[in-house]
Each structure stands twice: as C-alpha cells, then as structure tokens.
Amino acid sequence: MDEFVQRCVCPASLAITFAFVDDVERLPAWVIGVSAFTHAGGPNQGVGSQWQMRIAFGPVKRRVPMRCTEWIDNELIVMRSTSGRELRIEFGFTAVTATETAVDIVVGYPRPEGAAERAVAAKLESLATIALGRVATRLRDCVAQEYSRAPRADGPSATVFDGAGQANRTELGPTGERDGQ
Q: What is the pTM of this model?
C-alpha cells in the first residue's frame, strides 16, 4: 500500500480539533471531492461505525463504504473501505501547545497494478499531493472557525473597556486577540 501524508497545525486545543474531525459528517465541508459522508450502520462514532462516502472528481462519481477500524480518544481515527480496492484514511492528533494541535492526515491506497495503472498513477500523484495540501489547509481553517465559536470557560479572558468606560468581559482567541464579540 502506498501513502500520501500531510500535516497541518490547527489553532485550537486537542479536544476541539479531535471533536471536529471525529464529527465525520462534516467531512464534505473540508475534504476536496467528498460530496457526502453519511452514517450507514453500527455506532455513531468509534470502532465499528460504518459510513457511506460519496466522492466526485469531475465526471467520476463513486460511493465508498467505510468502517472505523481504530479510534483512540484525542489520538487517532482510522477508517478503511469495506469493498472494492482498499482505501485507508487516518487522522493522528498531537497537542503542540494548549491552543495548537498537529493533525497528521494519511491516505493509504493500493499500489497500481500493471503498466497502464502505474503510468496514470505517476501523473496523478502530484495532483493528489496538492489536493491533500488543500485539504489540510481547509481543515486548519474550519477548526479555527469552530474554535472561535467554542466556549472556553477555563480559557484566557480579558476585561475590555468600551468608549463609555463600561467593562466588557470577553474571551480571547488562540493568539490573544478578542473573539468577534
């Protein structure tokens, strides 16, 4: 099996980042080419949960049944296709700081068979690398947007005075800026 690997650093805590990715029905918002990711059986999350992924790349549209095969809270999510050629999607999570989380995205796919498949795969590899980089960027941006809305009762806050001298308590964002409140 060959792999594409991409790392992104999300500007949110480990718990928020993991919860965002673990809500797999959100995948179409940040994974290029995925038009739907719907529950198809088993538990709603974790090992044994089953999903139907719809992929659309130009004129090619496919449904890929997936099953979660590994799930460790705040550490790892692994999904594998259950029919057709094997596809593996893995998300590994590491806290960088209290407000930054590294996510390693790994897409495993079968080695091309035959000369024709190898020739096509060689041409598509650079496109797939670019696409996975865009997926990582979109994940980072979506998590940042989610983080800006998440309540942080135990997180940093500040008292900001408006022009009339009124004190307003506000939450600070991941880099110390005021959230849009």
A: 0.75
The CATH number of whichever domain residue 131 belongs to comes to: 3.30.530.20
Q: Which domain holds residue 15?
A: 2-30+71-153
Residue 155: HSE in the Cβ half-sphere, 13 Å Cα cutoff? 20
Is 33 a residue whose pLDDT tops 50? yes
In angstroms, how far is the first alpha carbon of the chain from the final one? 48
Task: Quote the CA–CA distance of 58 and 39 in Å, as a whole number.
Answer: 24
21 burial (CB, 10 Å; 0-12 / 13-18 / 19+) is buried
100, β-bridge pairs? 97
* Nearest CA among 28, 32, 52, 54 for reference residue 40: 52
